[in-house]
Each structure stands twice: as C-alpha cells, then as structure tokens.
Amino acid sequence: MARVTGLLLAAGAGTRLGRGPKALLPYRGRTLVEAAAHTLRAGGCQEVVVVLGADAQAVSAEADLEPYRVVVNSHWSSGMGSSYLAGDAEAHPNNHLLVALVDQPGLTVAIVHRLLLSHRPRRITSAAYRAMENDGVLRRGHPMVIDAQLRSAVASTVSGDAGARVFLQRKPWLVDLVDCSDESTGEDIDTIEQMNRLL
After folding, report:
1. Which of 4, 14, 46, 147 counts the most CB atoms within 10 A of its CB?
2. 3-class SS at 47?
C-alpha cells in the first residue's frame, strides 16, 4: 500500500470571520490547526504537512505543530491554489495526498480512515455529504485523496483559489465519492454564527 501525506491547508486569514486566522480558533482544548493535524495522523497518514500563511509566525508560536512538517506560503493571499502547490511540493513525491481544510471541525479520524480504505489506484477519493435541505443529494467535499500518480496532472491545473477543482471538473469520472454523512455535515466555518460548530 502506498504511503499517504496528509496535506492540511491552514493559510487563510479568516477575513470573513474577523477573528484572525481560523487555524488558531479554540477547539476542544487546543487550536483548530492542532486538532486537524492530529486527526490526519491518527486516521492513517504517515506524514502531515501543514501549510500556513496569514500570521504564520503567530500560528507557529501558539499552536504545537512540532510533530508535523510546516510550510509557510508567502503567497497565501493569492488563494488556496498556491497553498496546495506549496504543500504538494513538500510532500514525499511517491505518496498519495489526503487534502483537508483547517476550517472543517467535523473532520474525524473515522472519515480519514474510511477514505484511505476506500481509495483505488489512479483515482481520486472524496468525502461526500448529504445536505438534507437539498433532498439528501450527495455532494463532493473535503477531505479527498489524490492518488500519487495523479498529483502532477492535478498540480498542473491549480491556480488562484480553485485548488484541485479544475481537474475534478474536467475529469469527474476519476472521482469516487464516499458518503461520510454519518460523521459530519462537511461544512466549514465562515461566520460568527458558524463558530457554534466548534462547541
């Protein structure tokens, strides 16, 4: 079985939330970035790469990220794409990537483990969630596993704030959805009201 690098994108400034970087939001006795990185490791990722950006020095000082590989993306303001590419470049070249977002407090060890067990060679395996307000339609979300053999092709399409979205839209037949609705809604945190999800 190929090894897996957990790639945690945690570079945003949290502008809409207005509380500084989301990485430093408190979550169950630790920062959100610590909790997410721990979840990736506990779920089966052999290495974890954390990409910081906004207020990276403050995040590094406050959060305990010693067990993980930390990359600072100086171009974080250009969008998620530059953070993805920075993390992809740091990850072991032969590893699959499991890409996660720091602002999804619903990420669990079970979700990570389920995706890794479900992954098939030369494919992308994505967590998916059923939104009841949309008649329970299964929708692609994060995290997702990008096969080692697809990393170069995915990276060639990344720009701006799109991340892997362009590649996924061009080749949807390569994407396997794994229902994780029993573990999470898959939602992220963008507003003060949504901070209740951290409680």
Report:
1. 4
2. strand
Residues 156, 62: Cα–Cα separation, whole Å:
34
Between CA 164 and CA 171, with CA 168 as vertex, the angle to 5 degrees is: 140
Instruction: Sketch out the chain's domains with CATH numbers.
Output: 4-198 (3.90.550.10)
Question: 187 burial class (0-12, 13-18, 19+ CB within 10 angstroms)?
Answer: middle
Could you tell me which of 50, 45, 144 has the C-alpha nearest to residue 95?
A: 45
- CA end-to-end span of the chain: 37
CA distance 129 to 180: 6
Q: From first to last of its 199 residues, what are the pLDDT tens digits of the chain? A: 579 999 999 988 666 665 667 888 888 889 999 999 999 999 999 999 999 998 899 999 999 999 999 999 998 888 889 999 999 999 999 999 999 999 888 899 999 999 999 999 999 999 999 875 666 788 999 999 999 999 999 999 998 887 788 999 999 999 999 999 999 888 877 766 666 666 5
pTM of the model: 0.92
- The two three-digit tokens of residue 185, written as one number: 């809604």
